[in-house]
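Hi V.,

You were right to ask for the full record rather than a summary. Here it is.
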Amino acid sequence: MSAFNSAQEVYDETTKENIQIDFLINNAGFGVFGMFAETDWNKELQMINLNITTLTQFTKLYLKDMVKRKSGKIMNVASTAAFQSGPTMAVYYATKAYILSFSEAVGDEVSDKGVTVTSLCPGATESGFQAVAAMEESNVVKGKKLPTSREVAEYGYAAMMKGKTVAIQGLMNYLMANSVRFLPRALVVKITRKIQEKAK
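Predicted structure:
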């Protein structure tokens, strides 16, 4: 799905088969772990294309049909990473900030059209994400008991069905995501780097 215009291909196929999409869940995404000056640009470009471009195009294509029908629900998977900058995963955090901002704005635009847009913001989750991002040794993951993908999915589904705009899974995630508003930004960046760095 990181290939250019892949969302259009999926949309064209569902339209051709007369498949009506009532619920759109944009969940595909991956991260790259490491200092930005040292990471692989091609991987980051693929990540930007998948996390931002493909998600935005999927939303654009199916949202138009939902607005015409005056019904439909969209859930875009962001992250608690959306609430602050993230040293050692700079591009990934930035893509998630985009998803949160984009989803809130579009959700407001269609709030009177029978359509809802939910931004799901989980924290670290037990999945294959850490292995793909090569961050299994980071402080945020190593030795931690993480919520399962199923738990996060069930929470996100319930939030989408309620039409919630921003859904932060887990009490600690909720508190941490909201606490950054009351701290100096420079301090938040330093704390995030400490959490993200490889465990020693």
